[in-house]
Amino acid sequence: MNWQNIKVSADNTHFLFDGKHVFGKKFNEVLKFHSPGLAPVSDESGSYHIDFNGKDLYKERYSRTFGFYCYRAAVVDLQNWFHINENGERVYADNYNWTGNYQENLCTVRNKDSIYFHIDLNGNRVYDENYIYAGDFKDGYACVKSPNGLYRHIDKNGQFLNEKEFLDLGVFHKNYAIAMDKEGWFHIDKFGKELYRQRFLAVEPFYNGFALVTSEDKSKMIIDEKGQKILFV
Q1: S-S: 131 plus which of 86, 127, 144, 207, CB 3.0-4.6 Å?
Q2: CA 199 to CA 215: how far, in whole Å?
């Protein structure tokens, strides 16, 4: 049975293969399988992971478990958050108030002082800086909120991508990111340079050269990468 073809039931209580109930058990909740073929489940005993044969990966039980990303899964033991590996073993000794999922072999975490930063696959801090918020890495960059309340992009070494700061910021998608200043939302390149002068109430990332935006009067339109209005929708 190929684990990639195992699906979650509509009520999120069991798994299906070729439309048929597998493992002969219903759970309180299940999440989908992730590489290397492991899924988070919860029942009366607590939360844990099973393999693609429906067998428990380990004997421990947690308050909550999440999916595997980069062969690491976030788990919650009472109030403590940390990661385990594909053998069910704890990866590092530190406890956090919250952890994300590993993306591109790095993970954002929040410590007991409500400080955000990124750790590597072994749980080591990637940089010394502390942030109000830190997001996932995508295509080599992540968004962070600095102590001054402004957002910037950092690379995988924790270095700032450019000198620009924004009121809000998104990750890069096909070389461009959404950003906000005091006048509104727009798109920027990797130098932090605006693609056009207009500002909008809301913008979406570019999709094959075009983006859906919302103007101040709440009307929606499609723009190109130069900010030219293509059509109203």
Answers
A1: 144
A2: 8
Alpha carbon of residue 233 to chain centroid: 30
Question: What does pLDDT average to over the chain?
Answer: 97
Query: What's the pLDDT tens digit per position in 200-223?
Result: 999 999 999 999 999 999 999 999
Strand order in the sheet with 168-169: 168-169, 177-181, 184-188
Our CA dihedral for 136, 187, 180, 171, rounded to 10 degrees, sits at 0
Give the residue from 82, 85, 148 showing the smallest Cα distance to 119: 82
Rounded to 5 degrees, what are φ and ψ at 90? -65, 135
Within a 13 Å sphere around the CA of 98, how many CA atoms are in the beta-carbon half?
Answer: 11
Beta bridge partners of 90: 84
Cis check for the bond before 147: say yes or no (omega within 30 of 0). Answer: no
DSSP 18: T
List the strands of the sheet with 107-110, edge to edge.
98-99, 107-110, 116-119
Paired with 185 in beta bridges are 180, 200
Using an 8 Å Cβ cutoff, are 168 and 182 in contact?
A: no
- The pLDDT tens digits of the residues spanning 156-180 come to 999 999 999 999 999 999 999 999 9
CB 99 within 8 A of CB 74: yes
